[in-house]
# Entry
Amino acid sequence: MTASEQAADVVGIASDHAGVELKATLVAMLHDLGMEVLDLGTDGPDSVDYPDFADALAGAMTDGRAGRGILICGTGIGIAMAANRHRNIRAATCHDTTDARLARQHNDANVLALGARTTGLEVAQDCVRVFLDTAFEGDTNPRHVRRVAKIS
Ligand code: RB5
# Structure
């Protein structure tokens, strides 16, 4: 496997202060699943600005250090908005596994955004598993390829 193929398997993760605890739990879960994780912070309770952490993840995905990502803020909304300003990012705020599945199947989302204050721990963990395990349906449905291409 080449270095860039290995990096494509890396899951980048970042959060603001609202998402620190959920991030730590998800990092541990990803390690338990045998995944390589790039944790971009934040790591403490001090108030930070969520766009800075969206930008950190987008930068890691742009330069190839991570192939896909997870972002967490209080609602998963602001951090997804910031991430989606980057042309190569398709961040989806997901509240349940149906959101996570369809974000992959139809939208080829490459970033899962979660709300630490709005989504329970086990639902968030299930969203991550489904997000990482679900393929884009572009191979079987060219409409999805066309629509995703129009986004960028
Ligand atoms: C931080 O208090 C909160 O505004 C932030 O985590 C997020 O919910 C914004 O979308």
